[in-house]
Write a structure and sequence with these properties.
It contains five helices and four strands. It is mostly helical.
């Protein structure tokens, strides 16, 4: 596993329940602000589902990915709703009110 992936996992572990952040924010915090796609790849390969809460990472407009690795966007949305994250559209988290920024 790469150092970048390890940094991504450590950052994502810090996202609190009931909050979301973006792929780009994680990339920036990991020291590679242009690596949001690589963040997505790291999360797709999450070695510890349930410990690394990759469901809390969304696109910059709050949209959920169609490719959520652990069951699709319906599962991702269900997990976020269960944590109290609000949605402004069917598959778009209310990023304005639920964003986590370190």
């Amino acid at each position: 596993m790469s150092d970048f992936f390890d940094r991504v996992y450590e950052i994502v572990k810090q996202i609190p329940r009931g909050k979301v952040t973006t792929y780009g924010a994680v990339a920036k915090l990991a020291g590679s602000p242009r690596a949001s796609r690589q963040v997505g790849w790291a999360l797709h390969n999450n070695p510890q589902p349930g410990i690394i809460p990759c469901h809390r990472v969304v696109f910059k407009d709050g949209s959920l990915t169609n490719g959520f690795a652990f069951g699709g966007r319906d599962v991702q949305k269900g997990m976020l709703v269960a944590e109290g994250v609000g949605f402004c559209e069917e598959y778009k988290a209310d990023i304005k009110n639920f964003i986590w920024e370190l």
